[in-house]
Design brief:
Length: about 230
């Protein structure tokens, strides 16, 4: 049973009242200004968040099953330890978003700036990232598995222990980044630039690459078993 309806929730958030662990399933929150809200652990499944402002809000560990995201302002929003499936976030504002340790399956994000986003420990699986600027983002232990990564800028990032296993990476740069202990096992790469980066014990097993530029990158302990690279620039 919902203790909050749309108006009661708005009133509570406007007064700075935390609304943690509440059952908010199915509410129509479209168009509301809920900036700075604390909804940690609440059930937001099937809620309508069209045109909702969640700037700088705390939505950690919320339940987001079948939640509607459209033109949602998630700038600076904390979405750690959540699960999102089959969602297109391309219309949302994702500046400075935090997705630490979240599970993101079949997600689409295109034409977005995620500079300095915190995606440490997040898992993207069967997802599409296209025309994304991730400059300076935190990507330690982030997993991109079976993903399409196209026309992305992943420069000046900490990619320590990141995993791009079996992903297709095309027209993308990872310049001036730390890829210590990163894995690209089974990845297919085309026109990828990893210049002036740290490639320390990177696993390149079974990669297939065409036009791979590693100019100026420091290499040590690379694992290249059964890898195929055409057009290596170094």
């Amino acid at each position: 049973m919902n203790l909050f309806d749309r108006d009661k929730l708005y009133e509570a958030i406007s007064m700075g009242t935390p609304v943690e662990g509440e059952y908010l399933k199915g509410l129509d929150l479209s168009g509301l200004d809920l900036g700075g809200a604390n909804l940690r652990g609440s059930d937001l499944s099937k809620t309508n968040l069209t045109d909702t402002n969640f700037e700088e809000s705390h939505l950690e560990r919320t339940i987001l099953e079948d939640t509607i995201f459209k033109n949602t302002n998630l700038s600076g929003t904390h979405l750690s330890e959540v699960t999102l499936k089959d969602v297109d976030l391309s219309t949302c504002n994702l500046n400075r978003i935090t997705f630490m340790n979240s599970h993101l399956a079949r997600i689409t994000i295109s034409d977005k700036e995620l500079r300095k986003a915190n995606l440490d420990g997040a898992t993207f699986i069967h997802s599409t990232l296209k025309n994304i600027d991730l400059t300076g983002a935190r990507l330690r232990k982030t997993k991109f598995l079976f993903c399409l990564i196209e026309n992305c800028i992943v420069d000046e990032c900490d990619l320590t222990e990141a995993n791009f296993g079996l992903s297709y990476i095309v027209h993308t740069s990872l310049n001036k980044s730390n890829l210590t202990l990163a894995s690209l096992t089974g990845a297919v790469m085309e026109d990828v630039r990893i210049t002036n980066s740290l490639l320390d014990r990177v696993d390149l097993t079974l990669i297939q690459a065409r036009t791979l530029d590693i100019t100026g990158s420091k290499q040590q302990g690379l694992i290249v078993e059964r890898s195929r690279v055409h057009g290596l620039i170094k």
